[in-house]
Amino acid sequence: MEDKDFRLSRIFEEAIGAITNLDSKLFKTLRYLFFKPGALTSEFERGIRVPYMKPFQIFILANIFFFIFLSEIDIFRTPSKWFFVEHYDGVEVLKQVREIVAAKGISQEEVAVLYDAKSSNLAKGFIFLLLPIIALIAALLHWRQKIAFGKHIIFSIHYFSFVLVIAVLWTELIDLIVREFDNNYYVVPIQTIISVYLILAFRQFYKDNWAHAIWKGLLGTLLIGIAIQVYRMSINIWTLNHLLEPLTISSS
After folding, report:
1. Is residue 168 within 8 Å of residue 64, measured between CB atoms?
2. Could you state, in chain order, the average pLDDT of each consecutive group of 10 residues for the chain (252 residues)?
3. How do the domains of the chain map onto residue ranges?
4. Exposed e or buried b for every residue in 163-197, given b needs 16+ CB within 10 A?
5. pLDDT of residue 12
6. What letter does residue 126 receive in the DSSP assignment?
7. How many CB atoms lie within 10 A of CB 87?
8. Does the CA dihedral 110-113-117-122 come out positive or negative?
9. Are residues 99 and 247 in contact, defined by beta-carbon separation less than 8 angstroms?
10. What residues contact 209, with CB distance under 8 A and at least 6 apart?
11. Phi, psi dihedrals of residue 49, rounded to the nearest 5°
């Protein structure tokens, strides 16, 4: 390289160009992600990738966005203020909490702090495990098409990224308008939005006709919801059991 390539003006030009290019990719990616369900995956499959962000870049940004704004109202784990009850989905939570309190000589409030910190980290760290599950659901619903599983993975990344971002945007919107928590304002609208999105995405990427797209989209939403519930309970229980581990070791 020549000396002129290291002039400050040239460096600033390249920096501005890089930022502009990133912004262009980001805005175009978000436009396709939100307003053209399934089209981003179709573009990726056709090899048109330069104008858009890479799938995992989108997923990472969506994760950061989600866990910054919805760390308290987290659909991928249950915060202690709701989980620490006598019985939660058949689990004797407070019984285990009292065992931890007795073993470690700390208060229930301190256990709650430990639980929230660890469960939050686990929920963030292992959320990628939901991607192959969503991909498997999409693959099973379209098993006759004999599509490579990697394409289902890309589809799941784009779909799940949308779910994470729309959950934040809807929650923030409702908080501004209603200023109170009510499941009717959150659960039903979000489920409706992601169901419609999945139907449209199935129709675009998998070329389903409307009848197939609708029933596959609704069934897919249900199965994905079940998978998320299983993931959430696994995080809850694993975290609680991990806090009990020192007690088990010391008593043996």
Report:
1. no
2. 52 50 78 96 93 93 88 82 92 94 92 94 93 98 96 98 93 75 74 96 97 98 96 95 65 40
3. 55-251
4. bbbbbbeebeebeeeeeeeeeebbeeebeebbbeb
5. 53
6. T
7. 10
8. positive
9. yes
10. 203
11. -120, -25
Task: Take residue 245 and report the two structure tokens written for it.
Answer: 């581990």
Six token digits for residue 12: 């600033």
Q: By three-state DSSP, how is residue 38 classified?
A: coil
Work out the number of other CB atoms within 10 angstroms of the CB of residue 68: 9
**Tokens 């997923």, located at residue:** 59
d(CA 46, CA 67): 32
- Tokens at residue 180, please? 């109170």
Distance (Å, whole) CA 136 – CA 140: 6
Please report, as a single letter, which amino acid is at residue 46: R
244 token code pair: 């009990």
Instruction: Evaluate the CA torsion angle 141, 230, 221, 69 in order and state its sign.
Output: negative
Q: Is 80 exposed, middle or buried (0-12, 13-18, 19+ CB in 10 A)?
A: buried
Nearest-angstrom CA–CA distance, 112 and 121? 14
